[in-house]
Write a structure and sequence with these properties.
Length: 122
């Protein structure tokens, strides 16, 4: 079973994603705090991370930089989600090593398709 870490400060989004991913056979660790999410990623690296762009205390790009700079998590696929589809944000995230980018509101079938793609599942 693949392990997905969701780091998003919106509990509604987290719950929707968690339920959808679990229904599709994934193990999900939801975290609604950026700092705790980073610690969780380092403590037990997941198979894939779904990361919100806009969060209090630390934004998604800062977390992505930390994730990519850690040997244990540097190769973990990261799907970033945001309500801000500003091209500059997307380019910056891609330059920093995000694997994929999804614009909110969350389209759960799209998220499932992207997760399966980046975990090399049919």
């Amino acid at each position: 079973m693949f392990d997905i870490l969701i780091i998003d400060d919106d509990p509604i989004t987290v719950n929707i994603l968690k339920k959808s991913l679990e229904i599709n056979g994934f193990s999900v660790r939801p975290v609604t705090d950026a700092r705790k999410g980073l610690l969780e990623a380092f403590r037990d690296p997941p198979d894939l991370i779904i990361l919100d762009y806009m969060m209090p205390y630390r934004d998604g790009l800062t977390l992505l930089e930390d994730i990519r700079s850690n040997l244990e998590t540097s190769q973990v696929p990261v799907i970033m989600m945001t309500a801000t589809a500003v091209p500059e944000v997307v380019r910056s995230a891609l330059r920093q090593g995000v694997t994929d980018f999804i614009v909110k509101p969350v389209d759960t079938p799209l998220v499932i398709d992207r997760v399966r793609k980046h975990l090399h599942l049919p």
